[in-house]
Amino acid sequence: MLDKSIILLSLCLISAVMSCGQDENKARYDNYRLVRLTLKTTDHVDLLQELEEESDSYTFYGHALRPDQNLTVLVAAHKIYEMQDIVERNGMDCTVLQPNIQKLIDDEDSTVKSKNTPASEFDWDHYFHLETIFSWMDKQIAENDFVEALHLGSTYEGLPIRGLKISKKSGNTGIFVEAGIHAREWISPAVATYLIDQLIHSEDPEVVDLAENFDWYFVPVLNADGYKYTFEKDRLWRKNTKPYGRCKGVDLNRNFDIHWSGTGSSTKKCTYDFCGSKAFSEPEALAVKLFLDEFANKNKIQTYFSLHSFSQLYMFPFGFTTDRARNYDDLKKIGEKAVEAIKNTHGKIYQTGSSIETIYPNSGDSMDFVYSNYNIPIVYTIELRGPPETPTLFILPAAEIKPTCEEILNSFIAALKEARQLGYYKRDEL
After folding, report:
1. Contact at 8 Å (CB) between 180 and 220?
2. Same domain, yes or no: 309 and 416
3. Of 74, 89, 109, which one is at a domain's C-terminal end?
4. How far is the C-alpha of 284 from the C-alpha of 24, rounded, in Å?
5. Angle of the 401-421 helix axis to the 205-213 helix axis, nearest 10
6. 418 is a domain residue
7. Is residue 398 part of a domain?
8. What residues sit in the active site (predicted)?
9. How many domains does the chain have?
10. What is the reported pLDDT for 3?
11. pLDDT digits over 171-196, tens only?
12. Are residues 125 and 268 in the same domain?
């Protein structure tokens, strides 16, 4: 008769083998430390560039570009001493923002509703799987005759790129709202769905005005594959999921044909800002282009918003050059009204300016592409909560979902009011 301990060990080994590869085996970040480094000299810049190039145990949120720069880095647990040694030997300043990033992820789990949550339980106090977002969109379409489904195409993995249109009156100018292009930025789809809900159901006269006098085009989760991946595999995933050799994924907001593969993007396949094999190599970015090719002029789309997180910024073109947009002064005025409205809602401070002025150089993004290729003069990328120095990265506490939504709705009201006063959206000029 076999020893019971041998049988038990065998069962454990079988269980371990069978569990390998199951979806519940998510990436974990136990004792991964989030730090902020202050780069004082060109030697510091060179050192951090070398470290990012040579090691996959450090996740850089931004690139080392210049002295007097703050750079946020996620340090793998087994590299904590090495980072401490680098900092001390080279005289850099280092602040620990988060000693264990996995704790943030674990705490967030309690605010994530299950995949089978019905549309009737959708709210802005929790985060939701893609399946529930889609079913909630279906509910809005079924219940409101002025809401219709949009199908922009399919993702790399074959998921639908879904949107919806809100139109209460023929002849309106259009506003396109793109959200969820970066997978881990969960607050972005949450804000998009809140805006949809308010435009459909709100009785506030200012919101009713927006609903009745503009046509709205929403894509709440452009990067559906990546968004699903963050719930099931890796909470901090940014890109889509298309394989490139041993690596996976393209930064969709570096895949548009505007100075593609230029500053602020990478041609290296494993980097977080990999721009793809060519402009519009990715079906998700291409879907936006093809939609606007067909409908931007015909449906008089005059405004484009792209929702991201984090840093609390209201940015307009350009990211790839310091040259000013042709209506820079107007975009600045509109942005100032928007951030003032945000401050007046819950006291949060956002900054406004061109992308290259406010965040960092970047190229191949949707905002610059849309502004440069269509007759769409009002274009913004909005970096939602938290602030640039946030210790929570993209893991915004669920308690902040609704306040974020409210302040962005108010910013839209203020921005569109100012744009009207500046003479935009006049029917005889479209």
Report:
1. yes
2. yes
3. 109
4. 26
5. 60
6. yes
7. yes
8. 383
9. 2
10. 54
11. 999 999 999 999 999 999 999 999 99
12. yes
Q: Token match 């452009």: residue?
A: 222
pLDDT in tens, 61-90: 989 999 999 999 999 999 999 999 999 999
Is the domain of 192 the same as that of 50? no
Structure tokens at 166: 């809100």
- Which strands sit side by side in the sheet containing 378-384, from one edge to the other? 147-154, 160-166, 214-219, 173-179, 301-309, 378-384, 313-316, 351-354
Q: Strands 301-309 and 173-179, how do they pair?
A: parallel
Where does a domain end: 59, 90, 109? 109
Of 385, 302, 378, which is closest to residue 346 (Cα–Cα)? Answer: 385
User: Is residue 353 packed enough to be buried (19+ CB in 10 Å), middle (13-18) or exposed (0-12)?
Assistant: middle
- 206/369 Cα distance (integer angstroms): 30
Residue 373 is inside which H or E element, if any? helix 366-373
The confidence score (pLDDT) of residue 25 equals 82
Residue whose tokens read 């839209």: 412
Contacts of 132 (CB under 8 A, 6+ apart): 113, 115, 117, 118, 119, 122
Length of the chain: 430
pLDDT, tens digit (0-9, with 9 covering 90-100), for 278-297? 999 999 999 999 999 999 99
Whether 52 and 192 share a structural domain: no
Taking the C-alpha atoms of residue 98 and residue 158, their distance in angstroms, rounded to an integer, is 37
357 plus 387 within the same structural domain: yes
Note every long-range contact of 327-332, with CB atoms under 8 Å and residues 24 or more positions apart, other chains counting.
327/377, 328/354, 330/377, 330/419, 330/422, 330/424, 331/378, 331/379, 331/380
Which pLDDT band holds residue 426 (cuts at 50, 70, 90)?
Answer: confident
Which of 282, 383, 407, 418 is catalytic? The answer is 383
In the structure encoding, which two tokens stand for residue 226, read together? Answer: 């990546």
174 plus 95 within the same structural domain:
no
- Which structural domain, as residue segments, surrounds residue 321? 119-429
Count of alpha carbons within 13 Å of 141, Cβ hemisphere only? 16
Q: Which residue has the tokens 């099931």?
A: 232
Mean pLDDT of the chain: 94
Domain match, 127 and 148 both: yes
Measured CA to CA, the distance from residue 190 to residue 405 in angstroms comes to 8
Q: What pLDDT band is residue 4 in, cutting at 50, 70 and 90? A: low
| CATH number of the domain within which 92 lies | 3.30.70.340
383 is catalytic: yes
The pLDDT value given to residue 1: 46
CATH assignment at residue 379: 3.40.630.10
